[in-house]
Each structure stands twice: as structure tokens, then as C-alpha cells.
Amino acid sequence: MTTQTPGSVSTFRRLMSYAKPYRSGFIMAILGMIGYALIDVYFINEFETFIDRGITQKDQQYFFWAPIVVVLLFAIRGVFNFISSYSLSWAGTHIVKDLRQQLFRHMMRLPVSYHDQHSTGELISKITYDAEQIKQASSKALVVLIHEGAFVLGLLVVMFSKSWQLSAIFLLIAPIIALIVSVVSKRFRHISNRMQGTMGNVTSNAEQMLIGHKVILSFGGQAIEDKRFGEINNRNRHLDVKLESTKAISVSLIQTIASGSLAFVIYLASFPEMLETLTPGKFTTILTSMLLLLKPLKQLTTVNSDFQKGMAAAAAVFTVLDEKPEQDTGTLELNDVRGDIEVKGLTFQYPGHDKLVLKNVNFTVKAGQTIALVGKSGSGKTTISSLLPRFYEIEQGQILLDGHDTKDCTLASLRQQIAVVSQHVVLFNDTIANNISYGFTGELTRERLIDVAEKAHVMEFAASMEQGLDTEIGENGVTLSGGQRQRIAIARALLRQSPVLILDEATSALDTESERKIQGAFDELLKNRTNIVIAHRLSTIEKADVILVMAEGQIVERGSHQELLAQNGVYANLYKLQFGEGA
Ligand code: ADP
Ligand code: MG
Fold first, then answer.
1. Bridge partners for 472 per DSSP
2. What end-to-end distance do the CA atoms of the chain give, in Å?
3. Is the entire prediction scored with pTM above 0.90?
4. Which of 379, 455, 518, 555 is deepest in the core (most CB within 10 A)?
5. How far, in Å, from the CA of 460 to the mean position of ligand 2?
6. How far, in Å, from the CA of 378 to the mean position of ligand 1?
7. 495: closest CA among 405, 415, 583, 433?
8. Ligand 1 neighbour 352 (Cβ under 6 A)
9. Which residue's CA is the nearest one to ligand 1's atom 24?
């Protein structure tokens, strides 16, 4: 059992730091397991007396006490068993709970760029599968190590006390077993490391299917998805079988070797000198001990694979925990800003990508103004809107809010100033009211809530619902239409009263009809704020103070609607195109 790399040693140390607060549980568990094992050893040891004194010498007094002792000892054994199981599960579940909580918290604090690069399924499986795996594998390793270890040691002591010669033979095979173990467990480590990954694949693939269910149906992608999942599913199964068969081979090998020594013991016992020193009770006890040693020895040889499995899972969890959270080094607490925005020399590429998505972008928005960003998709509009609340770190250039570099501000206070309403409305599985007030920290009266709901035209549909604003809307608001969801998002932004508002294609998921219906809600939202409106339909931005036209990460035209039309450039072309379309 010596295949631990320095990596798994340090992982183990780190895991131990999680175990520390629950030390008492582990100590109780270990004591319980040792007690349990020792009672078993005591029973084996008693075989000799039972046979030699009880049966051979027909000792009546022995037969009187034996049944009473048996029942008593089994009762105590049961208590030990309960103590060890309970304490171990108490400590183990506490560790899993702590790790899960920490993972959950940490994942929330990781930058958007991290989440861009890691699938939801992969991360969920870290919280669910890997965390549980640490407990299962490590508890199993601990149980085998302590319980079976104590049992083996006890049996060895019993055997040696009866006949050291016979017992010594048995020990000769120990180095051979150890050799096989080290070879086999190396392979285990490799396979179990790969097992971790494929389980994540199974989850993320299933998740992708569930999320994209409608798309798959409408594009008839069932066969492709089925095949893709089938391959991953089968690879997972394949590795599982490999793991099990390696285990089975190692177990069979070890048992065969052990049986050879058992045969040798029987042969040696037939020598006259030996037969003289052995009573029937002694011989039975030694032989029984040897047979009973096989199972725990087998388990002890696989303890490393369990341990490694736990360490692999722990390492996977620690990798996430070691990811750097969002940089929040700014110290300036923004409070009630006016809303002057200045973007200076902003050049940006997404972390891990070479392509420059923004190239030297400059513009200013005065407090209370509305500017519009237009341009083909992929021109960098959303990127600008993600950089304002600093979802990504700005490397080149600056964004100033009321003259303060956003880098110097605390993330929480910066984001408090900015409300983003985008095409993808995220709603929580809760009531309409709670969705509107999500994240709102100020004092909230029912009147205020209703006022906001009315302004955002949420009341229009909520009023006809049985429970009004307290209606549950299902996971991500599945029970609502696109326009209704969008209106809840608007109400949420209205309530927040952030000085800066970003509308990123907020209406592009809606048809013209519903868009017209909620236009009033938008007009309400735009009042008294600095607004950055990114819109697909040019009709919604004609009223903007300044329109910025973007192409391939650069601002190629700027001016009012009339000015840009007069320029007869990119904007004018876009406008004609849409106007033609509409007609
Ligand atoms: P727009 O909103 O104008 O359609 P985006 O700002 O979303 O454009 O995208 C600009 C460019 O950045 C595109 O080429 C897109 O492929 C790339 N991009 C967008 N988001 C990411 C991301 N999370 N990681 C890497 N590249 C991205
Ligand atoms: Mg976009």
C-alpha cells in the first residue's frame, strides 16, 4: 500500500483539515470498530477451550456459562457496531455538508469567465457526486483499515499463541501479497481518476438533452443525441467493468496464493512432532483463523483503491476550490451615483481567446442620457454591457462611472448601480412578488411592490391570476409567456432604481405585438436614468440621444438618428433594410 504520490498525500492532509472539527466522531468510530473486532477475535480464541474443555472433557460448568456469555458478548458487539456506524456517518456527513457548502459558495464567487469554460453538469457533479464519493470511499477505507486491521492483528496474535511455527508459514506470503497489491492499485488509481471525468460527462450530456429538449424534438435530433449519450454512457460502463474486473482479478490472485499456504499448513500439521503439540481445539482455532483471515486480507488489499478513489474525488473538489474567485480588490464604495459613464480606449479579448472583441472603444454617456448600441450580431455590443458591471476583468482601457475607474470600486457597490435587462430573463422557482423583489435589500412595502408591478404592466396579467402577485411561476417561470417574463424582469429593474440601466436586446425574443404591449413598461423604466440600449429593431432606438454603430469591435459611426440617416452610411443601410423588411 505504498503507491501514494506526493499529490495524494497533500490532498489527504487537506482533507484531514476538514475532518478536524469532527475528530471526536472519528475517535468514537475507531474505538467502536476496534471493540467490535476484538469481540470477534475473542470468540475465535474460545474455540480451543470450547472443544478441548467443553466437548472433549465434557465440562458441565463450561456448558452452563457459555450460552450466557455468548448472548452478552453479542449484545455488547451490537453496541460497538452502532457506536462506530453512527459516529462515522455523523462525522462523514458533516464533512460532505461542509465541502458542498464551500463548493456552492465558491462557485458563486468564481468569475463569469470560469463558468463560460465549464459546463453546468460538470460543476453540479462536483457538488453532488464527487463530494459524496469522498465520504463513501474514505469511510470505507477507514472501516476496512481499522475494523479489518484490528481483526487481522487479533487473529494473528491468537494464531501465534497457539502455534508460532504454523503461523509463521502464513506470514511468508505477506510480501507476495503486498507486491501484487502495489501493481494492482497503481492501475486502480489510473482508472478511478478517469471514472470521475466520465461521470461528469454523463450528467452534462443528460442535462444538455433536458435543457434542449424542445430543440431536439423540433430538429429531430433524437438519434444523434441518443448516439452521443450512448457512447458516453457505454464508456462509463466500460470503465466500471474494468475497475470491477481488475478488483476481481487481484482478489482471486491473492486468495489462490493464500490457499497455497493453507495447504502447506495442513501438510506440516501431519508431521508427528507437530501432532504432539496440537490439541484438536488448537488446530481448529488456527485453521479457522487462517480461513477467516482471507476475507479481511482481501479487503485490506483493496483499501488503497478505495482510498485513492476518495482522494481522486477530493482532488477534483479541491481543484475547483483553488480557482481564483472574482478579483474584488477595489475599495471605493459607490453610492447613489449620478450616472456619467465614460469608456476610454477599451480593448478586450475573452480570457483564453486570442480574438480582439473590442478595439479601442471610446464613448461617453452623460447622466440621464440614453445611448443606443447597434450593429451586426457578434460586433461586441453584449461584451460592452458585460464589462460595465465588470463581469470580466478589463486589461486595456478604462470604464469610468461618475469619474471613478470601475476597477477601484467594490464589485457589490458597482453592480448595485447597474441594472441589466436582457433577452434571457432568469426567473426563480418562486412567486411573482419574490421574483420582483429578488436581491432587493431596501425596505419593501406591499404598496411599493404593487406600484412597481403596475408600472411594469405586471399587474395586467397578475391581477387575473388566482393568487395575484403571490402566484408561483414554476421553474424559470415556465408558466408565463415571453412578454410576461420580460415584464417581471422590468419590474425587478424598476424596483432596484439603479442609476444605470442596460437593456440588451430585451425585446428581441418578443413578437412585435407583445413588444408594443410592453413598450409602456420600458418607457417607465428608462425615466430618470442613464441608459444603454442595445436593440435589434431600430424603431426602438430612434429616440436615443446618441446612437453608436458598431462593427467588428469598433465604433464606426455615431450621432443622432437624423444625423446618421443623413450620413447615408452603415446605419442608414441597416435602417433601409429593416424598413424594407417591415413594409
Ligand atoms: P453582440 O452582442 O454584438 O452580438 P457579443 O459581444 O456577444 O456580440 O460578441 C462579440 C464577440 O465575442 C463574438 O465574436 C463572440 O463570438 C465573442 N464572444 C462572446 N461571448 C464570449 C465568451 N463568453 N467567450 C468567448 N468569446 C465570446
Ligand atoms: Mg449580444
1. 431
2. 78
3. no
4. 518
5. 29
6. 6
7. 433
8. no
9. 350
Query: How far is the centre of ligand 2, averaged over its atoms, from the C-alpha of 58 (Å)?
Result: 93
Instruction: Give the tens place of pLDDT for each residue, 31-48.
Output: 999 999 999 999 999 989
Please work out whether the CB of residue 423 comes within 6 Å of at least one atom of ligand 1. Answer: no
Nearest alpha carbon, ligand 1 atom 27: 350
pLDDT of residue 19: 93
| Burial of 379 from C-beta contacts in 10 A (0-12 / 13-18 / 19+) | buried
* CA atoms of 267 and 224, how far apart (whole Å): 64
Kindly report, residue by residue over 102-155, the tens digit of the pLDDT.
Answer: 999 999 999 999 999 999 989 999 999 999 999 998 899 999 999 999 999 999
Alpha helix (H) residue ranges in 110-173: 112-117, 120-125, 131-143, 149-162, 164-172
- Give the start-end residues of each E strand in 454-568: 500-504, 530-534, 546-551, 554-559
Give the C-alpha separation, 569 to 559, whole Å: 12
- CA pair distance 448, 458, nearest whole angstrom: 13
Measured from the Cα of 504, ligand 1's closest atom is 2
* pLDDT tens digits for range 520-548: 778 888 888 999 999 877 766 888 899 99
Query: Is there an atom of ligand 1 within 6 Å of 377 CB?
Result: yes
Tell me the C-alpha distance between 243 and 583, whole Å: 66
Helix axis angle, 280-322 to 174-211, nearest 10°:
40
Q: What is the DSSP letter of 477?
A: G
Cα angle vertex 33, ends 27, 36, to 5°? 140
> What residue owns the CA closest to ligand 1's atom 6?
380
Cβ neighbours of residue 244 under 8 Å, at least 6 residues apart? none
Burial (CB count within 10 angstroms: exposed 0-12, middle 13-18, buried 19+), residue 483: buried
The closest-lying atom of ligand 1 relative to the alpha carbon of residue 379 is 3
In total, the chain counts a number of residues equal to 583
CA contacts within 13 A on the Cβ side of 546: 17
**Cell numbers that stand for 52 in this block:** 478441548
Nearest-angstrom CA–CA distance, 265 and 258:
11
Q: What is the number of the ligand closest to the CA of 355?
A: 1
383 in contact with ligand 1, CB cutoff 6 A: yes
**CA of 505, closest atom in ligand 1:** 2
